[in-house]
């Protein structure tokens, strides 16, 4: 049938202790479903979504519901061609913000090809990454 050869869209989700699990697994489920639908519609498709979980270290992260997740990469080892960055909410954001770590971590993420930043939590003060101008397509 059709042989679509487009670059895969790179999606990274930041994970940290106390993050809300639905803010992580919900987007993963949506992008995974989109990949399945694309594969059904276009035989041999090379486009779609690559999803990686980013954390400060490669150690397991415990969500606010107690479920442990394993990061795929750190901000230093993650894919540099990042298209979409998702930052979940949860009680862990308060702890990270109080220690000033969330903003520091987010500023380490390469923004070479970043098109979208999606934040599911409200932050005060705004982490430096969200003060940057980002073009949304």
Number of helices: 4
Please report the total strand number as a whole number.
7
What radius of gyration results from the CA coordinates?
16 Å
Strand content: 15-25%
Q: Strand order across the biggest sheet?
A: 5-2-1-6-7
Structural class determined from secondary elements: alpha/beta
Write the CATH architecture name. 3-Layer(aba) Sandwich
- Compressed to H and E, one letter per element, the order equals EHEEEEEHHEH
Properties at a glance:
alpha/beta; two-stranded antiparallel sheet; 4 helices; five-stranded parallel β-sheet; 29% helix; single chain
Give an account of the 3D structure.
This protein has a single domain, classed as Rossmann fold, CATH 3.40.50. The protein has helices at residues 21-41, 92-98, 101-108, 128-131, and strands at residues 9-14, 49-55, 61-62, 68-69, 73-74, 84-87, 116-119. The radius of gyration is 16 Å and the shape is globular. The chain has a five-stranded parallel sheet with strand order 5-2-1-6-7. Strands 3-4 form a two-stranded antiparallel sheet. Residues 122-137 have low confidence and may be disordered. Helices cover 29% and strands 20% of the residues. Helix 1 links the parallel strand 1 (9-14) and strand 2. The chain has 137 residues and is an alpha/beta fold. The protein contains four helices and seven strands; from the N terminus they run βαβββββααβα.
């Amino acid at each position: 049938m059709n042989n679509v050869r487009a670059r895969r869209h790179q999606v990274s989700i930041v994970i940290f202790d106390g993050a809300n699990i639905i803010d992580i697994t919900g987007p993963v489920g949506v992008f995974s479903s989109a990949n399945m639908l694309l594969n059904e519609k276009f035989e041999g498709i090379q486009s779609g979504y690559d999803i990686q979980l980013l954390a400060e270290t490669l150690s397991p992260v415990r969500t606010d519901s107690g479920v442990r997740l394993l990061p795929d990469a750190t901000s230093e080892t993650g894919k540099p061609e990042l298209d979409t960055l998702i930052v979940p909410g949860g009680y862990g954001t308060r702890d990270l913000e109080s220690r000033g770590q969330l903003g520091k971590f987010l500023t380490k993420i390469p923004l070479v090809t970043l098109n979208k930043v999606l934040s599911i939590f409200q932050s005060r003060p705004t982490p430096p990454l969200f003060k940057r101008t980002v073009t949304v397509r």
